[in-house]
Write a structure and sequence with these properties.
alpha+beta, Jelly Rolls, Arc Repressor Mutant, subunit A, 2 domains, six-stranded antiparallel sheet, four-stranded antiparallel sheet, about 45% helix, elongated
């Protein structure tokens, strides 16, 4: 049996409570029946098991975990865990908090109800945690930035793992994920003269397939969605930027042909861009 060990290193930049902060990282070869809790933490605490076995408990569930498993403790969550009597855990951990942490944990799918994930063999997460600990031990000024970089890599690995259908966390259906990617692409690129063909190439899918699933999920084609998005944004510019010409508004929403823009605007809004601007400027409360 391995001799028990324990080491931890804290972030030399003590600035918790902001956008994102990695607090500390550590590793331990636990002793037989090493136990912690029941207790709560005021931060997120991710454990990655490298060898051995043990039990992790939340208020509602018990998980028997071994090599390749990881578990996430949420702030304020009552938990306890204990190592096996004959093959105790060896694990690494990293603690973090901040507003971005809340958002990314939600995206990862590691909820208080389903806080456990089985990682694929030779997953790099233990190495990333070890590198965070090494940077903290160096006490270098750059260690805080390095820790955030490695934490993002850890999150990326967990998100990739969570997409596998065999996981405890429920993966979002592929069609819905693809449609969200399309919406994100159009929302971020509408101001540029991009086409649906360019989007399909960027996402790596056939245009006919993307058009079919997009209409299935949203009720409209990608072309209609992109045009409506551009017109909606142009309405905002017409209201808020009276200094811009119609041609400049058109170009600002990714349409280089201002005559085409005006025709499509009138088709969707019921009046020309100039009429819309005149009416909204004379009636500031009107935004239709």
């Amino acid at each position: 049996m391995m001799k028990p060990t324990y080491s931890v290193a804290s972030n030399p930049a003590q600035q918790g409570g902001g956008w994102l902060h990695v607090r500390f990282a550590g590793e331990s070869q636990t002793s037989p029946e090493h136990a912690l809790g029941p207790k709560i933490f005021d931060h997120y605490l991710l454990h990655v098991i490298e060898s051995g076995y043990g039990i992790f408990r939340t208020e509602t569930d018990k998980f028997q975990l071994g090599p390749g498993d990881c578990f996430l403790i949420h702030p304020g969550q009552i938990i306890s865990y204990v190592s096996d009597a004959t093959q105790p855990w060896r694990y690494r951990w990293v603690a973090f908090d901040g507003k971005q942490a809340d958002e990314e944990v939600y995206r990862m799918g590691l909820t208080p109800e389903k806080p456990v994930l089985r990682l694929v063999e030779n997953n790099p997460i233990p190495r990333y945690v070890s590198l965070i600990q090494s940077h903290f031990q160096s006490r270098e000024d750059s260690s805080h930035i390095a820790s955030i970089g490695y934490l993002h890599l850890i999150w990326a690995e967990i998100m990739n793992q969570s997409d596998r259908p065999s996981q405890l966390t429920l993966a979002e259906p592929q069609v819905q994920r693809t449609v969200k990617q399309m919406i994100n692409y159009m929302t971020s690129q509408y101001a540029h003269p991009v086409s649906i063909e360019q989007m399909c190439t960027s996402l790596g899918y056939n245009r006919a397939y993307l058009s079919r699933i997009f209409k299935q999920e949203t009720g409209m084609t990608p072309i209609t969605y992109l045009l409506k998005l551009r017109v909606d944004q142009s309405k905002r510019l017409l209201r808020e930027r009276p200094d811009l010409s119609i041609e400049q508004v058109s170009a600002s929403v990714g349409l280089t042909d201002s005559l085409y823009f005006s025709r499509q605007f009138k088709r969707l809004v019921g009046r020309s861009p100039s009429q819309y601007r005149k009416e909204t400027l004379s009636s500031p409360l009107r935004t239709d």
